[in-house]
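Next comes the chain:
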Amino acid sequence: MAFSTLVAALLLPLLIPAIITYLIERRRRYHSSYNLPPGELGVPIVGHTLSLLDALRRNTDDQWFRARVNRYGPVSKISVLGSPTVLLAGPAANRFVFGGGGGGLVLTQTRALRALVGRSVLTFTGDELRQVRGALQGYLRPEMVRRYVCQMDGEVRRHIHVNWAGRRRVTVLPLARNLSFGIICAVVFGDDAALVRDTLSKDFEALGKAVMSFPVRLPFTRFSKGMDASARIRKTITEIFRRREVSLLQGGVSSHDTSNTDFITYMLNLRSQGSHSLPLEDIVDNAMGLVIGAHGTTSVLITFMIQNLANEPHVLDKSKMRLQLRKDQMMVLPGMMLRG
């Protein structure tokens, strides 16, 4: 027993490099039959993920991308989050991507995001994507958005009064995340926004961090914590949906009224009218996808806007002048005409 254990301990350091070399060579032979752009895919599974994530943490991702473009040109291959990836750079690449690539490009997401969020607008393709987009476009039409302007304005004012007023120094990004999270919860969950905001904020934060992670569920990893958070979020939102569904069936909300409801009730109304056939699980996943998609992008935009105002005093002064002008215009007596 002791001898076999000793042999295994001696052979293991030799076997690991041999296995890695075999996997690299096997992948190289597999891809050699394709006309691929220059570059390398790196170590199997890991690829360039660690170096890219490190650059993102250090806020040096622009230098990371420029170094690859300078080395391999505007088109190169890399491996990120376990997936072979083509890196495109430059105006021609932008036109190609945003023009749909001649019909050859299909929206896909990482395996981590598909596992965390499920079947949502972030992961749908084809007819399913068109069906969900149609429902979302109806929900986001101008008359629907106008309903939430006052609600958003009130949430922003409350947030500033509680977290900003009277403070000499604030950390913008966490506060911007809390603000955007509160607003998107109000839009998506309506009367249950406070419940979601108070009980699931930490879970949504863990879910957001897990999006950029390896889709391997090992204990104490970001992905594993994100999967646990996703399960708790899905359970709570499902309970909210079922309560709304019961209320809808009992006549608590008109099934013909799609103009005065939050996203949850709106989607349930559309389903009762036959406008879509998404099951409850898919509607829950789409609610999660909306929160994840709007939460992160909006908070980052707010943070950079505040940074720009802080670093560019002349921009801040112009903004103050325009706000004051707007206030003066709003104080004009009814019936008076302002000339531009």
Summary: The first strand starts at residue 75 and ends at 80. The chain has two domains: 37-98, 126-330.
